Amino acid sequence: MCLGVPGQVAEFVADNPDLATVDIAGVRRTVNVALLVDEGLGVGDWVLIHVGFAMARIDEEEARMALDGLQLMGRAFDDEIEQSAAPPRW
């Protein structure tokens, strides 16, 4: 099952401006942020991530509500977080 999961930008990859390290419920992984180049993303911003791509910039309240809702899903949410820890497949 693939979900859109909120994550917080922790840092940008120095040699590739299209990539950022994002914290997803305590798991850090590299995601592609190229779709949001015009958003002016910064460290600490929240994004909605789907299959390794940041799809939208969201505010902290939206992120918290989404995480709370996802945690209600139980095992499906846990599976998604486990998959987030895996290396990207692009």
Task: Give the total of beta strands.
Answer: 5
Radius of gyration, in Å, reads: 12 Å
Distance between the termini: 18 Å
Q: How many domains in all?
A: 1
* Sheet of most strands: 5 strands, antiparallel
The low-confidence runs, each spanning 5 or more residues with pLDDT under 50, are: none
Structural shape: globular
Structural class: alpha+beta
**Average of the residue pLDDT scores:** 85
Percentage of residues in helical conformation: 25-40%
Using the coordinates above, name the CATH class. Mainly Beta
* Helix-strand string: EEEEEHH
Strand content: 25-35%
CATH T-level fold name:
SH3 type barrels
Question: Could you give the order of strands across the largest sheet?
Answer: 3-2-1-4-5
Short description:
The protein is an alpha+beta fold and 90 residues long. The chain has helices spanning 60-71, 75-85, and strands at 5-12, 19-24, 27-32, 46-50, 53-58.
Describe what you observe in this structure.
It contains 2 helices and 5 strands, in the order βββββαα. The protein is α+β, with helices and mostly antiparallel strands and 90 residues long. It has a single domain, classed as Roll (SH3 type barrels). A 5-stranded antiparallel beta sheet has the order 3-2-1-4-5. β1 and β2 form a beta hairpin. The longest helix has 12 residues. It is globular and about 35 Å long. The two termini are 18 Å apart.
